[in-house]
Design goal:
Length: 291
């Protein structure tokens, strides 16, 4: 066995670990595969004779690759979303194997992926490497170009976002969750009567995208009009804490695309506020509730 074959064998032994790191960093199976391939190319071009811990070296390399990919992704996001907010409730992204990726997202934790997608790249890297893969803050600091103390603070901020904080009592949270679950079930089934049952007669549906609704406006009023907007949708929607109260997020395979805040009074939804603008999404406090 020559040196190249030996290196390839060692890399293959680490491939599963590298894919796990990359997937949690990127939330995309195809992008994770690209990152792993790039890690192999960098390994094959490097002099690793002085490397004592190849696994640690590769983890650092894959983390740096993912960090660059996250930063590039964020720079492209401003123009990445379509105009029709409610289409986000049913649209699906193209992928090499969407069903496999959906299963992988569920196994990793869709809740985790959704919230990670709201973090800035350095926060996401610090949280994933330290809290999931037990990488030290000294090592993380070298990757993000900050001090170990700053790296610890990045992970701490990310951890608070991941856990989420409810601004309502447990009893109110339970009641809100029941209304949201009924709303989503009726929407998915296209059950117009059931939608009307959970909507206040004067409910208002607002969106942050100009011309995003079928009417060409940014707001709809009345239960009938709003029910028509949501009937037959919400296949990808999940209950979530949105700024501390129960709402909805749409995040195909963990990639956040839409957040919906719901105002609930006396068991009825009186206001629906949809956020699709990337800058606005980054400002929201989100945490996905367990199913």
């Amino acid at each position: 066995m020559d040196e190249h074959d030996g290196l390839a064998e060692q890399f293959e032994a680490k491939r599963t670990h590298l894919q796990a790191v990359a997937y949690r960093m990127l939330g995309s199976l195809s992008e994770a595969d690209d990152a792993v391939q790039e890690a192999w190319l960098r390994l094959s071009r490097s002099d690793t004779q002085a490397v004592e811990n190849l696994g640690g070296w590769l983890t650092t390399v894959i983390a740096r690759i993912c960090l660059d990919m996250l930063r590039a992704r964020n720079s492209r996001r401003e123009d990445s979303l379509g105009a029709d907010v409610t289409e986000q409730l049913v649209s699906r992204e193209a992928g090499s194997d969407p069903e496999h990726e959906a299963l992988l997202a569920e196994s990793v934790g869709l809740a985790l992926l959704v919230v990670l997608d709201t973090l800035v790249p350095a926060e996401r890297l610090a949280f994933v490497l330290h809290d999931i893969f037990a990488v030290s803050f000294d090592e993380i600091a070298l990757i993000v170009g900050r001090s170990p103390t700053a790296a610890r603070q990045l992970a701490s901020r990310a951890r608070r976002r991941v856990r989420g904080v409810s601004t309502v009592s447990a009893a109110d949270l339970t009641r809100q969750r029941e209304v949201v679950d009924a709303f989503l079930a009726a929407s998915r089934a296209g059950n117009f009567a059931a939608l009307l049952a959970v909507l206040d007669p004067d409910v208002v549906f607002r969106t942050d995208r100009t011309g995003a609704l079928a009417s060409g406006s940014q707001a709809l009023r009345g239960a009938s009009a709003v029910a028509k907007q949501f009937a037959g949708r919400a296949q990808l929607a999940r209950p979530a804490l949105v700024n501390g109260v129960v709402g909805v997020v749409v995040a195909p395979r963990g990639r956040l695309r839409l957040a919906i805040g719901l105002t609930i009074t006396d068991g009825k939804i009186v206001a629906i506020d949809a956020f699709a603008d990337p800058a606005r999404l980054r400002q929201l406090e989100l945490a996905v509730l367990d199913d």
